[in-house]
Amino acid sequence: ASIGATVFPHDRADGEALLRHADQAMYGAKQAGRNGYLFFDAEQDRRTKDRFVALGRVQEALDASEFSLHYQPKVDMRQGRVLGAEALLRWNHPEHGLVPPGQFLPLVEHTGLGIALGRWVLAQGVSQLAAWQREGLDITVSINVSARHLQEPAFADELAELLAPHGADVARHLVLEVLETAALADIDYTCELMQRCRALGVRFALDDFGTGYSTFTYLKRLPLDMLEDHQDLAIVEGVIALSRTFGCEVVAEGVETPAQAQRLIELGCGIGQGNGIAAAMPSEQLPGWVRAYKGQMTAGA
């Protein structure tokens, strides 16, 4: 048996590690029999080790309570009224400051750690919703659920356990946001699961509709400003019309300007969310923001 590899260790420790892996590869080649080849990819090995180190750091962050939830308001742009808020995960990194989820969630979303993080988010969101209700803040809280977490056999039972101490009113104010791709991955299972969760009083929202399996995504790639191009405008109108047909409510995410808010209202979509309304904020800031909100992006503003 033979093995071939070209490696360039950066230091002695790296070199020793590569030699250990090379020995393991040599042993594997010998076990496979004579006249065989087993190639050792040093770069792939380095990426694998880096990934394990990164996953370990995320686990440490979860254990050390470095994660928090920020909340971005959802408002009725016609009436200037706050309807709810979406819970958004943030990592309070001791060295790098506030880290957005796009920098770490893709690493964990298909792992058991991703499920553990999802459970933490769900527990924190439900607890915060219950606390706001005790304070008299009457809003919904939306929580994103990953595809893998949703497919967990115990998901509905764990959700019931979280809601049990708080009563039915908390459940009625909880919205679980599920990506379109996750919802359609196993439609029969997802429907059965949603029925079990809805029996608890929980509602569901289909997040990023039109960017997954829906054919809308093939009509045109949506640019940042979705309301100035006539093709993009047609897609938005189509989604709104479809929602009316099925009796669904549409929330426009990414609303950045009063002009966008006005145009969405004219199209029949009155509920908006985006940095033009308010950026995601820590939980302790949201009640004051709700009380001070004047509906700056409503049709009459």
Mean pLDDT: 78
From the N-terminal CA to the C-terminal CA, the straight-line distance is: 77 Å
Secondary structure tally, helices: 13
Helical content, roughly? 40-55%
Beta-strand segment tally? 9
Task: Describe the structure using short key phrases.
about 300 residues; alpha/beta; nine-stranded mixed sheet; 9 strands; globular; disordered N terminus
Overall description:
- The protein is an alpha/beta fold and 301 residues long.
- Helix content is 47%, strand content 17%.
- It is built from 13 helices and nine strands.
- It has helices spanning 12-31, 42-63, 105-108, 112-134, 147-150, 155-163, 168-172, 180-185, 187-198, 216-219, 230-245, 258-267, 286-292; strands at 67-76, 81-93, 97-99, 140-145, 174-179, 203-207, 251-253, 271-273, 281-282.
- Strands 1, 2, 3, 4, 5, 6, 7, 8 and 9 form a nine-stranded mixed beta sheet that branches.
- Strand 2 (81-93) and strand 3 form a beta hairpin.
- It is globular, with a radius of gyration of 24 Å.
- The termini are far apart.
- The model is unreliable at 1-15 and 210-226 (pLDDT under 50).
SSE layout:
Layout lengths: L11 H20 L10 H22 L3 E10 L4 E13 L3 E3 L5 H4 L3 H23 L5 E6 L1 H4 L4 H9 L4 H5 L1 E6 H6 L1 H12 L4 E5 L8 H4 L10 H16 L5 E3 L4 H10 L3 E3 L7 E2 L3 H7 L9
Parallel strand pairs: 2-4, 4-5, 5-6, 7-8
Antiparallel strand pairs: 1-2, 1-8, 1-9, 2-3
